[in-house]
UniProtKB/TrEMBL annotation:
Cofactor(s), names only, from the UniProt record: Zn(2+)
Gene Ontology biological process: proteolysis
SUPFAM superfamilies: Leukotriene A4 hydrolase N-terminal domain (SSF63737), Metalloproteases ('zincins'), catalytic domain (SSF55486)
Molecular-function GO terms, alphabetical: alanyl aminopeptidase activity; metallopeptidase activity; zinc ion binding
Catalytic activity: Release of an N-terminal amino acid, Xaa-|-Yaa- from a peptide, amide or arylamide. Xaa is preferably Ala, but may be most amino acids including Pro (slow action). When a terminal hydrophobic residue is followed by a prolyl residue, the two may be released as an intact Xaa-Pro dipeptide
Entry keywords, A to Z: Aminopeptidase, Hydrolase, Metal-binding, Metalloprotease, Protease, Zinc
Family named by the database record: Belongs to the peptidase M1 family.
Pfam families (alphabetical): DUF3458, DUF3458_C, Peptidase_M1, Peptidase_M1_N
Protein name: Aminopeptidase N
Alphabetized InterPro entries for the sequence: Aminopeptidase_N-like_N, Aminopeptidase_N-like_N_sf, PepN_Ig-like_sf, Peptidase_M1, Peptidase_M1_dom, Peptidase_M1_pepN, Peptidase_M1_pepN_C, Peptidase_M1_pepN_C_sf
EC number: 3.4.11.2
Amino acid sequence: MTATQSIQPVLRSDYRPPTYWIENVELEFDLDPRETLVTARIAVRRNSQQPSDTLDLAGENLKLQSVAIDGKRLDGDQYQLRDDGMTLLNLPESCQIETKVLVSPLTNKSLSGLYQTSGNYCTQCEAVGFRRITYFLDRPDVMTTYRVTIRGDKKTCPVMLSNGNRIAAKDLDDGRHEVVWEDPFPKPSYLFALVAGNLKCHRGTFTTRSGRDVALEIWVEPQNIDKCEHALVSLQKSMKWDEDVFGLEYDLDIYMIVAVNDFNMGAMENKGLNVFNSKYVLALPDTATDEDYMLIEAVIAHEYFHNWTGNRVTCRDWFQLTLKEGLTVFRDQQFTADQTSAAVKRIDDVSGLRAGQFVEDSGPMAHPIRPESYISMDNFYTATVYRKGAEIIRMYHTILGAEGFRRGMDLYFQRHDNSAVTCDDFRAAMADANNINFDRFDRWYSQAGTPELTVTESWDAAKSEYALTMTQSYPTLPGGNPGTEDRNPVPLPVRVGLLDAESGEEIEQHSGVVMLDTETETFTFSGLSAKPIASVLRGFSAPVRLRMQRDNEELAFLMANDNDPFNRWDAGQTLATKLLIDAANGLADGRALELSEQFRDAFGRVLSDNSFDEAFKALALTLPRESVLGQEMDVIDPDSLHTARQFYRRRLAECFQSELTSLYNELAADGAYKNDQKSINRRRLKNVVLAYLSVLDVPACISRVSNQFHQADNMTDKQAALSLLANLDVPERDAALAAFYDQYKTDPLVIDKWYAVQALSSRPDTIEHVKQLTSHPDFSVDNPNRVRSLIGAFTQNQVRFHQADGAGYKLLADYVLEIESANPQLAARLVAAFNSYRRFDESRQTQMQDELKRIAEHPGLCKDVHEIVQRALH
Ligand code: 0A1
Ligand code: ZN
């Protein structure tokens, strides 16, 4: 038995309040790359509800120097020290605990706790990083106020930041200085932050609706100071939106954002001092794509919205993570929908949910949005907690309407401001504010897996009645994880519309939301003159897989007529999925590939329909991703799926070559780069069209792509062209890759794109390139963005990662083992690419399983990777 096999999970049912509360904390940091001294003075008071004189403080990777209670230093026999913390015994009712510890930021490659990034100091405390800074009650239900003194070298650390207000500063001897910060709001330790180093500030202001001026500060490395304006404007828009839509105002006088190069996630909402992956801050048209701009705005908004949903009202324990994350994702989705196009945003979000969360929810990591157990909490920052969590919040919104939802939010803040609460508290606020029973909604929090919604229809001409029978069920899941057994029907709001089968017109009186509260129910629509065509699950009103037998004509009809844009798009995707899976299966049976005429005609209609906005049209012309198609196959066959999809792309391009060419030419005539929504939409469509044209193996098409690459005045067009060239076997490819590298070699975020386009190439020799790129001087396993852009992107390349000889699997496993001890979180995210192994053929299954076993047997394997691998192998 290896050491890791004895790791015990933490259970939701084990929650107990702490034995002591913390009344306030004073922290002092004497910064040094290898030996930072952290002094903590914690004022504690016994929790009258948990009478005990014993206090357990969490602590990891700390070199303890001393412990004192009320100024009296303790001897070694007066406390118990373990690898994961210390226990203090016989404590009085209230006292001050002082600890001094040494930590080593320079050698901390886990990017959790206090670490160095590009020579600057930075912290990451969520979920359990604070215990790597000092001994503490490192749990979200312990909220307290912080006063933080930072001392550091004036030359290397001219800037020293922490949460709240800067209340004092002075110079010290021997070239050091000191700054003191105080945060008036009580907060859990996971929201603590410290940043110190050589940074420059891009400043702005925001005046709140009650007239307070807030200083906005974006701190970046000096060379990036010209890339902050978009982030600043995004922050101002977010602040205004939260006031307008939810009546929520910012509470401190200063809001700081720091961009760092080494970060495990997107960004972190520390109180008043957000720390961001630089990818979600820095942007200029020459270095960031339209998508990057959109993501920056969304992530800035997300972190800002956390100030109320997460910080002012936080989670009682980590099992409640979706309380803040599902809600905040929903809020950022609504924000982006308001800034751009609601329909396009919804389609993008549902595509992401289907590609990521649906896969997670049907494999060994399936868990309820409120998990029941974990070994490493870091493994539960998942698509399920975030994205499915947001879908659950959206269902409250659908059922209650915007006003009812707002009433629920108001009551939630009224009841719980400055406290740490549960998902049940949120559900109760929504119910009580609207006088509605949400008891059954509890099931959405405790059950894992994606429900299937089967819909059948019937038409009674004699009675002029049309009926939809809806039945819900759960597919069985592997692994026997909590939440995957004994599942009950969940409340499903199903948005429905009926269309006149002749004219395609909406039959208004029958549009709306029906509630499926039980396993099965029939909804009858009367007074119809003829059998209508139903549009079901409009706007993707519930996170389910819809099963409805539709013939191709009906899907083509919905593609052409549905006035719910989401379903209009989805009908096209459903039709394409049906045809492509059939084509892929046919290949295995030796059937020749053929483009469906129905699909060709439907595609042609979309192409010539000028009523769509360009971004919607771009989506409607795009075939489902290979990974989404794979989910619909009994056994995923990556090769035949790829061949069938490529065949369709090529045939469509051949059939519509002249229409596509003139559309491209029209869009390409837009002139110099502009950043307004219309221009962004037009670039999106232009690059979808270019992608079709690029698969025609003719010199004119290749030079069109190459010309776009060389002439582009913005990164969107440049990167799109480069990705297309990367798929080809032409000299223009190597020339473009070399030119791109040469132009951007000093900008790490752009070089990440250079790695990713190569890792995502559909060329058969991609794996060889990926291997070569791992020895490129710019590749570093210490930088998560770089690892994700090469190894992470490669695992998303379904046809090449799942190459039949297993070389892709070996490459991934080798990298997981290379990085697991330094950065467990990153390694665990990468290894999750094996989670779907049971969905493949026997040979691939065995090869992936063998790699998983090899990883599992690695001596001293970190617990993050251990948890993912043991679930997969179970
Ligand atoms: N709360 C952040 C995400 C985040 C989570 C964990 C981290 O380190 C393990 C870092 C960031 C958010 O939702 O934006
Ligand atoms: Zn978040």
